Protein: Proline-serine-threonine phosphatase interacting protein 2
Amino acid sequence: GRKNCKEFEDFLRERASVEERYGKELINLSRKKPCGQTELNTLRRALEVFKQRVETIGQVHMQLAQNLREEAKKMEDFRDKQKLHRKKIELIMDAIHKNRNLQYKKTLDAKRLYEQRCRDKDEAEQAVHRSTNLVTPKQQEKLFVKLAQAKSALEDSDRMYQNNVNALEKIREEWQNEHIKACEFFESQECERINYFRNAMWLHVNQLSEGCVKNDDNYEEIRKALEQCSIGNDIECFVHIRKTGSLPPGKEMDGSHIHP
Structure:
């Protein structure tokens, strides 16, 4: 999903560059390229409107380019905001996951120690049973002391093991609850992303449509100017400007003055 938003953001920026280049080319074309500059009267005025409107259309595309860049920036800001929120959740999950793994290791160590203490106690009991009538009272006393120490160590290790098991279960429940909350957050964030992406595309299409409407309005002004063209008036204007007089020229020579 994040990749798709980035791709659309890049698309908007590239589309903005296309619109900007096209707008600049139209403006330069309108300003620098001659187009019927020797025409007269109504057609000349229509051509002036034509060039003005072409330049205006170029400006429309330039403005569209600016709007697209602004929308791309909004998409970038949206991605950054979601990334920041997602990072906070990920840090919480990483911390509790590490804590869970650490407690799991401590519990395994406590279990191994407990199992070892069980073996130590069993060995001490067996030593006492085997020593009956075979050792001196002093040696017997030492074996009982060792057995008592083994039992005490077993009880300590048992408590430690149980405490670690309880701590692990508590952390597991906490991890599970945080995992559920994280999943709910990511689901909510994805819904937000899809909705934002959809609305961004909708706005993009509306901007393109608005640009087409503005362009068509300019073309309509050109059509109106062309409707005002009068071929007859333009011909009369040309004749008025170029005429050399109101009467045709006289004869170059009078035949009556020619003598054989």
